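SAMPLE LOG
Freezer: B-3
Tube label: C17
Construct: single chain, 189 aa
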Amino acid sequence: GPLGGIHASLYHASSSLVFVTACDMPFPSLPLALALLVKARGREAAVPRVGGYLEPLFAVYAAKAASKAREFLEKGVLQVSRFIEALDAYYMEEDEVTRYDPQRISFRNINSWEDLESLRRIWDLEAPKDLPTIACFPETTSYGASDIPGLLRIDEPHWSAGGGKGAASELHQQEEQAERHEEHPGRHL
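STRUCTURE (predicted):
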């Protein structure tokens, strides 16, 4: 289940932080993902809360939390929410989430043909048309300095949230500043 997938990604991570998203959530917000990465620094997780519910499958976890995930799996406690409660987690509340993903489209998932059709209609009406391209590659792929190793390769076009690069640019600056203060310079997310 989901906790097993989170554990596997943390256990095999080549970086200190891991961004996790579900395969049935096709519209991840890059600014939101970057904000979660920044908020997760020095913690074991950064998890959004939308509509009063945690969104553990669009979150960032520290690789060091793999051992806690394993403990829960070994005990047969499979609820991701219980795992998160045991972590030093930053909870990103809905008002903050909305700053980075105004339509909260990152959390819409596809479980049926009706969901797919609904999202197609919503996408045509509401979604920004200049979203970055996010593509997953196998672990054996070579990555450049601007990539998140083992997870995503990011090709960011001109992002126009509120004119110019907006939140995405601000988050890139925060991320670069946080990286300079890492214990292991040169090691990136």
